[in-house]
Design a protein that fits this description.
heterodimer; A: 546 residues; alpha/beta; Rossmann fold; six-stranded mixed sheet; 21 helices; 20 strands; B: 296 residues; mainly alpha; MetI-like fold; 12 helices; 74% helix; 0% strand
C-alpha cells in the first residue's frame, strides 16, 4: 500500500493546498452529553468539490454550519479541529476566528430568498459583503464584476433590483456572488439548489463547477440528493446518524457501495425503484374526470403595481377510472392550481371540470356529497396539513364522522385501526400527536385520512417531495400498493420525473399553464418531443449513475 | 435545513417538558388559582366572616392596625378589614361579568371574521379601530355622567373598553390558522364552516382566549378601580377597593393603612388572575412548533 502510494506521489502532479481540513469534529446540544455529530473527518483541497450526502438528521448540515462557524444558539462544537486555509479556527478567540472565516470562506444556503435582505437593493448587499474600506467607486466596479462572475448578464438592472424582483435562480447567483466577495478559497454550499427548479438547479450547479475551475475554489457541497452529488462531487462522504459511514472518490462509493446504509440510500432513488406493472384498465365510455379549457389567473402584486399571473391557460385533460396520471412541470407551471381546482379548493375562471360526466357546478346536493367523498387530496407538506392539536385518531375520525353519518361509534374505532394497518402504522399511533411523528409517518397519516372517505380518485400534490429519500421510496411503494388493492385512480403531481416514472402510466407536461406534451410515461420520458420536456429530462441530476 | 435544526432544538426542549407539562397549568398557575379561590371564597363568605362594613365606631377613628382591628380603621371608625373583604364582592362581580361578556364577544367576532372573511371581517376590524381611537376612560366618564353609574351602564362601559383586546389577539391567530393546509384538509374531508370552527379553530384559539380573558379581567378591575377613584364607580358608602384607595390616598403619610390594604387586595387579585391565565394558556396550548404563531 505505502509502496504504491509513494510511486503514485512521484507521478502525480503536486497536490493543491488544503482549503479545509476537519478532524474528529464533534457537535452537540448545549447542556446535554450525547452528540449530534460524532467525530467527522474531511478534507477539501482547492479546486475540488467534496460532497456530503445524507438524510435529514444525519448531521450533514450541522457539520457544514460548524465549519462556517454558524451553529445556531444552543448547539456547540464539542471537540475536534477545523482548519480553514491552514489555520485552526476553533482555537482562535471569537473575533479573530470570525474575521478569518469571513476572509477565507463563503457560504451559500439552501433557500436564496431569505438569505437576502428584502428591503435592500442588490447593490447595497454586495457592497456590504465587500471588505471594509473599499472606496466607493471601486465598490461599484467590484460589485458589477462579481455579478458578471456568477453569470448575470444584465448587471446594471440586477444591481438596482430588490431580491423579490428576481427569480430564485438569479437570487441564488447573487448569494454566490456575495459569498465570493472576499475572494475566499473555500465555498460551503448547504443544499444550494434544493429550493430551485430542476433546470435552474442544473445552471446553478454548472456555475459552481465553473467557479471552482476558474478560481480554484474548494467546494464543500452538502446535499440530500444523491444525483447532485454523483454529478458534481469528486469525493463524497456519506453521513448517517452523525457519523461518516463511507467516504472516497464519488465513482467508487456510488458505483460500488461498501456500507449497508449507502446501499439502502442508492436503492431508494426513485428512478431505480422496481415498479410492479399495473394491468391496463379497461377503457370506459365516460372518463372519471375530464377537464376542458380550464383557465385561472391570479392578481399578484409585483414590482410595478398589480398584474395578472395566468396559472392555467386552457388545459384539457382526461383521467380514466383506474389510471395513474402524472402531471409534471416546474414551479409556476400551474400544476398545483390544477390539482386544487380538481378537489374543489379553488375555482376556475372559465372552462369546466366534469366528474363522471357531470359538471362540478351542476351538482345537486347528493352528487356533491358523493363527489366530496370520492375525490380526496394528499397534501405536499406533511407538517402543516395535520392539525397539531389533534391526535392521529381524531384526525382520521373527522372524515369518517363527516362523510359516513350512519357509521356507528364502535365501527369508527375499528375503521381507524384498519386505516392505520393499511398505511402500515402501528395501531397505538392513534393516540399520538403530529409532533410525535416523523415526516414519513405524518404523510402516512395524511394518506390514511384521504383513504378514510373511501375515495375512488386521489389527487396528490408532491406528496413525497418533503421527505427523505428512503422514506420517499417507502411512501411511493405504499401508494403503488394502495392503488393496486383499492383500484384507485391517481392524479399525481410532481416535479420529480423519477417519482412520476415509478408511479404513473401516463404523464402530462405542463408549462406556463398549458399542456406541452402528453403520453405514456416511458415514451415521453425516453423520447421527449417538445423542447421543454427535453430540457426537463436533460436537467435531471444523477443521470451519470441512474 | 433551518427548519430541521429548529425541530432539533424544539425536540431538546420537549425532552425536558414533555406531555406532563402540557397537561397541567404549572406551579405558577396553581398558585394563581389558589390565590383567586381564596379571594373568591373570602368575598363570598364576607357576611359570615366579618361584620357590617358600614358600622361606624366614633371611639376608634383612624386606628392603626392592632389585634382588634387587624387592618386598622378609617375616619368614620369603620373596620378596614371588613370593608376590604366586602369590597371584593363588587370588584369580582364587576370584573367577571364584563370580562366574560367582552371576551366572548371578541372571540365570536374574531372567529366569524376569520371564517367568513370579506364584509364580516372588515366590519369587525373597523369597529375595533374606532374603539381603539376613543380612550376608554373618557368614554366611561361621558357615558356614566350622562346615564348615571348603576350596574348595567358600568358593565356596558367596561365591555366596550375591553372587547378589542380579545378580538385583536384572537383575530390575528384565527386568520393565520384558517390559512393552514390542515383547514383545507378538513374541507376536503367534508367539513363545513361550522365543523371547521368547532373542530379546529376554537381549540386552537382557546389558549389565547384564556390569556385574553385574564388580561381583560385584570384591566377591567383596574379600570373599575380608576372609575371608583374618580367617583364614577360603585357609590359610597358601599365599600369598593378603588374608592377606598382614592379616599385613603390623601392620608397616605399619616394613616397609610387606609389605602395600602385595599390596594394590596387589588394587586393580589390581578396577579392571581394573570398567573392563572398564563397557566391555562400553557395547559391548552400545544407549546410546540407546528402552527405558525401558535402561542407557546
Amino acid at each position: 500500500m505505502s509502496l504504491s502510494l509513494d510511486t503514485a506521489l512521484l507521478d502525480a502532479p503536486p497536490l493543491s493546498p488544503v482549503a479545509l481540513a476537519v478532524r474528529g469534529l464533534e457537535v452537540g446540544l448545549r447542556g446535554r452529553t450525547d452528540l449530534l455529530v460524532h467525530g467527522v473527518d474531511l478534507e477539501v483541497r482547492e479546486g475540488e468539490t467534496v460532497g456530503i450526502v445524507g438524510e435529514s438528521g444525519s448531521g450533514k448540515t450541522l457539520t457544514a454550519l460548524a465549519v462556517a462557524g454558524l451553529l445556531p444558539w444552543g448547539i456547540e462544537v464539542r471537540g475536534g479541529e477545523v482548519e480553514v486555509a491552514g489555520r485552526s479556527v476553533l482555537d482562535l478567540p471569537e473575533k479573530p476566528a470570525r474575521q478569518h472565516l469571513a476572509d477565507h470562506l463563503g457560504v451559500v444556503f439552501q433557500n436564496p430568498t431569505p438569505s437576502l435582505n428584502p428591503r435592500l437593493r442588490i447593490a447595497t448587499q454586495v457592497a456590504e459583503a465587500l471588505p471594509a474600506g473599499t472606496d466607493r467607486r471601486e465598490v461599484r466596479e467590484r460589485a458589477a464584476d462579481l455579478l458578471r462572475l456568477v453569470g448575470i448578464d444584465d448587471v446594471h438592472k440586477t444591481l438596482h433590483a430588490f431580491p423579490h424582483e428576481l427569480s430564485g435562480g438569479l437570487n441564488q447567483r447573487v448569494v454566490i456572488a456575495l459569498a465570493l466577495a472576499r475572494s475566499p478559497r473555500l465555498l460551503v454550499a448547504d443544499e444550494p439548489t434544493t429550493a430551485l427548479d430542476v433546470s435552474v438547479q442544473a445552471q446553478v450547479l454548472d456555475l459552481l463547477d465553473d467557479l471552482r475551475e476558474r478560481l480554484g475554489l474548494g467546494v464543500l457541497l452538502v446535499s440530500h440528493d444523491i444525483g447532485v452529488i454523483a454529478d458534481r462531487a469528486d469525493r463524497v462522504h456519506v453521513m448517517s446518524a452523525g457519523r461518516v459511514v463511507e467516504s472516497g472518490p464519488t465513482t467508487d462509493v456510488l458505483g460500488d457501495p461498501q456500507h449497508e446504509y449507502t446501499r439502502r440510500l442508492l436503492a431508494a432513488v426513485p428512478s431505480r425503484l422496481v415498479r410492479g406493472r399495473t394491468p391496463e384498465p379497461p377503457p370506459t365510455e365516460v372518463p372519471q374526470v375530464s377537464v376542458r379549457e380550464l383557465r385561472r389567473a391570479f392578481a399578484v402584486r409585483g414590482a410595478h403595481g398589480r398584474r395578472r399571473h395566468v396559472a392555467l391557460d386552457g388545459v384539457d385533460l382526461e383521467v380514466r377510472r383506474g389510471q395513474a396520471l402524472g402531471i409534471v412541470g416546474e414551479s409556476g407551471s400551474g400544476k398545483t392550481t390544477l390539482a386544487r381546482i380538481l378537489v374543489g379548493l379553488e375555482t376556475a375562471d372559465s372552462g369546466s371540470v366534469e366528474f363522471e360526466g357531470t359538471d362540478l357546478r351542476r351538482f345537486d346536493r347528493t352528487q356533491r356529497t358523493r363527489w366530496r367523498r370520492e375525490v380526496q387530496y394528499v397534501f405536499q407538506d406533511p407538517y402543516s396539513s395535520l392539525d397539531p392539536r389533534l391526535t392521529v385518531g381524531q384526525t382520521l375520525r373527522e372524515p369518517l364522522e363527516l362523510n359516513h353519518v350512519d357509521i356507528a361509534r364502535r365501527d369508527v374505532s375499528r375503521r381507524i385501526d384498519s386505516l392505520l394497518d393499511e398505511v402500515e402504522l402501528p395501531r397505538d399511533f392513534r393516540d399520538r400527536l403530529p409532533s410525535e411523528l416523523s415526516g414519513g409517518q405524518r404523510q402516512r397519516v395524511g394518506i390514511a385520512r384521504a383513504l378514510a372517505s373511501d375515495p375512488s380518485l386521489v389527487v396528490a400534490d408532491e406528496p413525497v417531495s418533503a421527505l427523505d429519500l428512503s422514506v420517499q421510496a417507502r411512501i411511493l411503494q405504499l401508494l403503488a400498493r394502495l392503488r393496486a388493492e383499492r383500484g384507485l385512480t391517481y392524479l399525481f403531481i410532481s416535479h420529480d420525473l423519477g417519482v412520476v416514472r415509478y408511479l404513473c402510466d401516463d404523464v402530462v407536461v405542463l408549462k406556463d399553464g398549458s399542456v406541452v406534451e402528453r403520453g405514456r410515461t416511458d415514451a415521453v420520458l425516453e423520447r421527449p418531443q417538445h423542447p421543454y420536456t427535453q430540457a426537463l429530462v436533460a436537467a435531471v441530476p444523477g443521470r451519470s449513475f441512474a | 435545513m433551518t427548519a430541521e435544526i429548529a425541530g432539533l432544538l424544539a425536540a431538546s426542549d420537549a425532552a425536558h417538558d414533555t406531555r406532563r407539562a402540557r397537561r397541567t397549568i404549572g406551579p405558577a398557575g396553581i398558585a394563581g388559582a389558589v390565590a383567586l379561590a381564596v379571594v373568591v371564597l373570602v368575598t363570598a363568605a364576607a357576611p359570615w366572616l366579618v361584620g357590617d362594613p358600614l358600622e361606624q365606631d366614633f371611639l376608634a377613628i383612624l386606628q392603626p392596625p392592632s389585634p382588634t382591628h387587624l387592618f386598622g380603621t378609617d375616619e368614620l371608625g369603620r373596620d378596614i378589614l371588613t370593608r376590604v373583604v366586602h369590597g371584593g364582592r363588587s370588584a369580582l362581580v364587576i370584573t367577571v361579568v364584563p370580562g366574560l361578556v367582552a371576551s366572548v364577544a371578541g372571540l365570536a367576532l374574531a372567529v366569524l371574521g376569520a371564517l367568513l372573511g370579506g364584509a364580516v371581517d372588515a366590519i369587525g376590524g373597523r369597529l375595533a379601530d374606532v374603539q381603539l381611537a376613543v380612550p376608554t376612560i373618557v368614554l366611561a366618564i361621558v357615558i356614566l355622567s350622562f346615564v348615571g353609574n348603576s350596574f348595567v351602564p358600568l358593565v356596558v362601559v367596561l365591555v366596550l373598553g375591553s372587547w378589542v383586546l380579545t378580538f385583536r389577539v384572537i383575530r390575528g391567530h384565527a386568520r393565520a390558522v384558517v390559512r393552514q393546509p390542515y383547514i383545507e384538509a378538513a374541507r376536503v374531508a367534508g367539513a363545513g364552516r361550522g365543523a371547521i370552527a368547532w373542530r379546529h379553530l376554537l381549540p386552537s384559539v382557546l389558549p389565547l382566549f384564556f390569556v385574553a380573558f385574564t388580561l381583560s379581567a385584570s384591566a377591567i378591575l383596574l379600570l373599575e378601580s380608576s372609575l371608583g377613584f374618580l367617583g364614577l364607580g360603585i357609590q359610597p358608602p358601599q365599600p369598593d377597593w378603588g374608592a377606598m384607595v382614592a379616599a385613603g390616598q390623601a392620608r397616605l403619610s399619616t394613616a397609610w393603612w387606609l389605602a395600602i390594604f385595599p390596594g394590596l387586595a387589588l394587586i393580589l387579585t390581578i396577579v392571581a388572575l394573570q398567573l392563572l391565565g398564563d397557566g391555562l394558556a400553557e395547559r391548552f396550548g400545544t407549546g410546540r412548533a407546528g402552527t405558525k404563531g401558535a402561542p407557546r
